[in-house]
Description:
Layout: H1 2-10, H2 37-48, E1 63-68, H3 70-89, H4 98-107, E2 110-116, E3 119-124, E4 129-134, E5 138-145, E6 153-157, E7 160-164, E8 169-175, E9 180-184, H5 188-199
Helix pairs in contact: 1-2, 3-4
Amino acid sequence: MELERTIRSAAPLSIGAKDELFPGRFPGWHQGWSVQPGHLIGVAVSHILGQKTEHTRCFMKTYHHTQQARLILAIMTAMSVMFIVVGAMLFRPLLFSVPFMILGGWLFHSLTIEVADGELRWRFGSGFVRKRVPLREIASAQVVRTNFIEGWGIHHSRYGWLYNVSGYDAVAIALRDGKRFCLGTDEPEKLAEILRNEVR
Length: 200
């Protein structure tokens, strides 16, 4: 019973997994909450031994959004079809560029941005190209507009490195060490507000 009471008190500290631990044993837990086993074991052992322990800070996913790269996909598809037709009829070397077009479309068909576990994360497509930054390193976030010259994909821009797949709306982010980068999104105000709240 003593161990069970300890588990009860530690359980709400970890949020975000899909299934409950010990379903039905603790009906007060909310659907979708679960426990980090390592954290529970540490708390339980420390409690049993009469030692004081400091609960580690736990985070939940506060933002997740995916923007589709419709323009990039349309351009890559049109160019692939054109190169196949022209290559088959007039200039066969053009056919060798088609696989690279398909690969580019697959890598950059979307951009997913999320704020979770104390980090800002973003990834293109299936996640082969991805990056992350701890929230504690972010100094500011503001809504900006890019332009046609700055392009789409991964480019250097007036806001530092730019990661985007569609449109011109973006959030410019400055880090505490002076580095800057910019994330394209169709939810710039929402993302900027969440980042400001997280880094206060």
